[in-house]
Amino acid sequence: MGHTPTTARGRATRERILDSAADLIQRRGVAAVTLDDVERAAGVGRSQLYHYFDDRDDLIRSVVHSTVDTVLAAQEPLLLEVDSLAGIERWFDAIVANGTRQDAVGGCAIGSLASQLSGRDDLTRQAFVDAFARWEAPLITGLGRMQESGELRPDVDVTELADLTMAAIQGGLLLAQVRRKPDQLRLALRGARAALEDALTPLP
Question: What is the pTM of this model?
Answer without folding.
Answer: 0.83
